[in-house]
Amino acid sequence: MFSTDRAQAIADKVEAFVRETVIPYEKDPRCGFHGPSDEMVMEMREKARAAGVLTPHILPDGSHLTQRETATVLIRSGLSPLGPLACNTMAPDEGNMYLLGHVANEEQKAQFLKPLVEGRARSAFFMTEPAEDGGAGSDPSMMKTVCRQDGNHWVINGRKAFITGAEGAKVGIVMAKSDDGACMFLVDLPDPAIRIERVLDTIDSSMPGGHAVVRIDNLRVPASQMLGASGEGFKYAQVRLSPARLSHCMRWLGGCIRAQEIASAYACKRMAFGKPLVDHEGVGFMLAENMIDIRQCELMIDWAASVLDTGSLGTVESSMAKVAVSEALMRIADKCVQVMGGTGVTQDTIVEQIFREVRAFRIYDGPTEVHKWSLAKKIKRDHKHA
C-alpha cells in the first residue's frame, strides 16, 4: 500500500500505542452496550496525547495528511475497535473535522473545530431521519426537518434518527431544509431544544453514546452558525461523505487484520483429528482467502484515496470502495468466526465484536444496494452519451 516516510512513521507510533495501551482496555467494564463511556474515552485520549498520537491525521499546523497517507494511519488505529476513539480518528468526529476544515470560516473553526481536533469534545452529525416519518435516509432529498430565518437566527424543527454519539456530544452539525434547499448549522450541545427520545439498541457497540432518535423543537441558531450558504447543504454533505465512507473502510480493515491475526493463531494451535486446524483445507483455505481479500481491500482503498487526493469529490470511487471493501470485510470477519468455532462467537476475543461492527458497516454510510444503484445510474448515463 502506498505510503510516505512521514505517514509510515506516524502509523508505526499509532500501531504501537494501540497494541500496547489500547487493547488492554477492550475488557474494561466501561465498554457498554451503547459504546465506551466518555470517561474512558477521555482517559485513553490523554494517554494518546502523551504518546503523541492524538488526532494523528491532522498535523500541528492544521493541515491534513493526504487521503492515501491517512489510510496508512487509520488502518493501524483500527487494530482495536477502541483505537480510533483513543487516537481521535473515529466517526463521526473524523468526518466532521474534515467537513469543518473545508467549509467552516475562521470563527467557526475556532469555536467548533478546535475542541474536536484537540480531542476534548465529541460531535454528532444530524442528517438521517426516522423511517416512520417518511424522512431522509439513503435518499437525503426526502428530508423533513425544516428551518426558517427569524431575524438574525434560524429556527429548526424536525426529528432525526441513528444519530451517532448524540448523547454526550458537545458539537452538532444539523441538516435542515429551507426554501433554498438543504442547509447545515453548527450547534453547541447539549441544547434543551434538542431532545434525545431514545438510544437505539443496535448490533454494534463501538461508538460512545450509541445511535439516538432525536427531536428538534424550535431550535434557535444564530445566523453566524450556518455552515456555508443556505441551500448548499447537499453539496457540503458530499464533501464530508465521500472521504468519510472511505475512512470507515480504513478503520474496519484494521479491525479485520486483527481478527485474521487472532483466527490464524487459533488455527495454528488448535488440534483436531490429529493435526492443527490450519492443516485442514477447509480451515486453511478460509484464512488464505482472507489474505487475498485483505490485500484487495488495501488496493481498493489506496485507489479511491488517490482519486480524492486529486481534488475530485470521488463519489463514484468512494461508492465502489465502500461496496467492495465492506463486503470483503464481512467475508473476512465471518470466516474468522467460523475458523474459531464456538470460541469465535464468544467475547473471549475481539473477533465477535469485529464481526458485529462490520455487519453494521455494510449499512452505515449507505447500504451496498444504494451504492450499486447509484453506480448503475452512472452506467446508464455514460451509455447514453457514448
UniProtKB/TrEMBL annotation:
InterPro entries recorded: Acyl-CoA_dehydrogenase, Acyl-CoA_Oxase/DH_mid-dom, Acyl-CoA_Oxase/DH_mid-dom_sf, AcylCo_DH-like_C, AcylCo_DH/oxidase_C, AcylCoA_DH/ox_N_sf, AcylCoA_DH/oxidase_NM_dom_sf
GO molecular function: acyl-CoA dehydrogenase activity; flavin adenine dinucleotide binding
Domain Acyl-CoA oxidase/dehydrogenase middle residue range list: 124-201
GO biological process: fatty acid beta-oxidation using acyl-CoA dehydrogenase
Cofactor(s) of this protein: FAD
Keywords (A to Z) from UniProt: FAD, Flavoprotein, Oxidoreductase
One GO location term (cellular component): cytoplasm
Keyword Flavoprotein in record: yes
Top-rank taxon, per record: Bacteria
Domain Acyl-CoA dehydrogenase/oxidase C-terminal: 231-378
Family per record: Belongs to the acyl-CoA dehydrogenase family.
Record protein name field: Alkylation response protein AidB-like acyl-CoA dehydrogenase
Lineage: Bacteria, Pseudomonadati, Pseudomonadota, Alphaproteobacteria, Sphingomonadales
